[in-house]
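REQUEST FORM: STRUCTURE PREDICTION
Request ID: SP-0412
Submitted by: Lab K.M.
Chain count: 1
Length (residues): 287
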Amino acid sequence: MSGPILAVGAAGKFAGYIVPALVARGATVRGLVHEAKALASIRDEGAADVVVGDLRDRRSIAAALKGVESVFYVAPAFLTDEAQVGVDFVAAAVKAGVRRFVFSSVIHPVLSALSNHAAKAPVEEAILDSGLEYTLLHPALFFQNYARAWPGIVRTRVLAEPWSSDTRFSRVDYRDVAEVAALALTEDRLLYGTFELCAEGWLNRHDVAALAGAVLGRTVRAERIDPDTLGDQAGPMRPMFEHYDHTGLRGNALILRAILGREPRTLRAFFEEMNGPPRAAILGEQG
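STATUS: Completed
RESULT:
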């Protein structure tokens, strides 16, 4: 692939890893951001071009896609009309003559009761029906979700989330996901694949608290937050919390290990990085 690659959400705290991963592979990258204030930082990451656009604005999306050969697409978290926005974006990519489409979806998009999972399925269907070259990525929960909570964990010695401390999850460092996406956009070996991306292990909150405690050299306690205490901010996440109360999200690390040709990054290593000197790229502060 020699043409420019559009990285949607290039200023995002997860998709922001895509630009440097692509640049490291010699790709020409155009970043799509929602606000002009992010332009300079994305250029600093190596993007050849950065454009401002809105996923609901057809004109700005058409302009962003002009001359683009490949696309990395990820939707903002809990976008209310995520499915339709994604389907429309796929159609715009086809109309613009895009050749290849890499979609960062979610592990188990068949979970119809979870809006943030179910909204991915229509987008995947649109991609499969589009005639585009494609790769579908199904990452587990991101290590980076712990970044915002880390200072509180250090201060209080408590790891608390609004679901059971006993349910088990697979997780992944989004830097590994970005590396897989960059491979899919610059090589052919992942074409037409759907890949579950997980690091090793199925940890519950007690296990994660023990890892954090080992890194900090002190005991960290696992607790459950009552979702009713969160008020309106729980909003659309309540079905997710209820699901997580009785069933976690488990996947297998075999695929990620095979694609990367190495062991995936570990949650302990991620905690060790957070416990070291501050690094914006680790803490997910791109945008």
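NOTES: The longest strand covers residues 133-139.
Reviewed by: T.R.
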